[in-house]
Amino acid sequence: MQKHRCGWCLGDPLYEAYHDNEWGVPLHDERLLFEFLVLETFQAGLSWITILRKRDNFRVAFDNFDYSIIANYGDAKKEELLQNAGIIRNKLKVNSAITNAQNFMKIQQEFGSFSTYIWSFVNDNPIKNNWPHYKDCPATTEISDRISKDLKKRGFKFVGSTVMYAFMQATGMVNDHEIGCFRYNEV
């Protein structure tokens, strides 16, 4: 018997594997939270499958998303990234990864961890929505608006409300699996 999945991931094995194993699972690991933050910012204006297909290249190019290393990238590393055909070569987004790494660590210093900070927006409890179809999901919410505004105030780049809502979905802060999806009650 075939499992029912959310409609957005159907037809691509990579998309389906991401949906089945990662999307919507509550995440507190600092490195993985930073990875999703970077990937979501690079995704702005592109499709998520484009990012997933380049994810391994991003991991290699960005030192496995070690924010303490990325925060110290200099001009030579920036240029290397901009020449790397395996990732999205956008100067503003490359620069934002560095700036965001620096600000990520400032949040860690202030709150003890980025996880503590980001999960406080949902009172440390995932929001479970009840969407019959993935197209019913909003692109932004009042919470993603607040997160975006606060991160921008702290100097983060490419963290608009739509990007932050996608981040919330990816990291399990919100469960937007379709109610008929086999993952809906598992995450």
TrEMBL record:
UniProt keywords, alphabetically: DNA damage, DNA repair, Hydrolase, Metal-binding, Zinc
Protein name as catalogued: DNA-3-methyladenine glycosylase I
Recorded coiled-coil stretches: none
Catalytic activity: Hydrolysis of alkylated DNA, releasing 3-methyladenine
E.C. numbers: 3.2.2.20
Organism name: Aquimarina algiphila
Database matches in Pfam families: Adenine_glyco
One Gene Ontology biological process: base-excision repair
Binding site for Zn(2+): C6, H19, H177, C181
NCBIfam families: tag
Domain of life from the UniProt record: Bacteria
Function text: Hydrolysis of the deoxyribose N-glycosidic bond to excise 3-methyladenine from the damaged DNA polymer formed by alkylation lesions.
Classification via InterPro entries: Adenine_glyco (IPR005019), DNA-3mA_glycosylase (IPR052891), DNA_glycosylase (IPR011257), Tag (IPR004597)
GO function term, MF aspect, one: DNA-3-methyladenine glycosylase activity
